[in-house]
Amino acid sequence: MCFAYVNVFLLGAGANVWGSGTLVTGWVCALIAIPVFYYRHDIVDRGKFPAHMFADLVLAGEHELGPKRAGLLPYLALAAGLMVMMAGYFIFWVWK
What is the end-to-end Cα distance of the chain in Å, rounded? Predict the structure, then answer.
């Protein structure tokens, strides 16, 4: 998992190699997925994932999914990745 943060640091460090504003353009393209997900999940599927999606998640010998235990950890991992990426960007492109 540590190498994922090294990779995202290098992503921020090399952000403007292809021109000024490349990092911002990449974020805009990535954020386009949010309204697409919202439309698909909340409008088409009415806020529930289809039942057949969970069939592959049930372990062999089990009849239902186990409890959800991740809590805030996935969100903290994403926030840490964002901070590491921005640190790489600021070290290599802002604080020259």
Answer: 29
